[in-house]
Amino acid sequence: MAPIAWxxxxxxxxxxxxxxxxxxxxxxxxxxxxxxxxxxAVGRGRxxxxxxxPPGGIYMSLVLRPQxxxxxxxxxMLGSLAIIDGIRRETGAETLMRWPNDVILRGKKVAxxxxxxxxxxxxxxxxxxxxxxxxxxxxxxxxxxxxxxxTLMDHLGAAVDAPRLRDAVLSSFGSLYLGWSEGRAAxxxxxxxxxxxxxxxxxxxxxxDGSVVVCRATGVEEDGSLVVELDGGEVVLRAEDIERLxxxxxxx
Length: 252
Description:
alpha+beta
């Protein structure tokens, strides 16, 4: 498989880059089309959570046409790792991934990823992978989300070169996606395990059925699932079964 060729489609202000990219994909857009917005009116994350998208951020959705439908659950994680790589290379900020797909900086969320798959007649048609990065604005404009969020500008004290950062993230994701397509994702994740902040931490996990457990994360499986210590044994948690995960401080 050849490296993916990215084709940018800038849309200015839009409701959601996910919606635009999905519509383009349904009309036959090729893999590698990237819908890029300056601002989103109804950005969102996993479980329909709000993702505020004021001017100054990077908001983009990638059209993908994967040939490995059995391993789609890894794509959001690879997207997060690509953002971490791009931010580290372009700004030096040491971001980390809070499992399964949040990018954090000093414990606060600075970026997020969402993947949405579409099928036709039971066959995978395409995946739209959305990425949002808080760049050149102050976290205070995020209102009630400001307490748990940060921006690169807040951290660095200066604006970042958003186009350079965007291109770095796309380049990194292209390499990871190629490795994933060739069955090397487990190795790629293992090589970057130091970027996953959740491993080794006490965590509070809210499952999709509403139940909540407190446990300790001990590792990440080859398929991206989180391994935790629970009730004296190890339990494997899949991202699709988890509504929310919160890293907890150690007890005194």
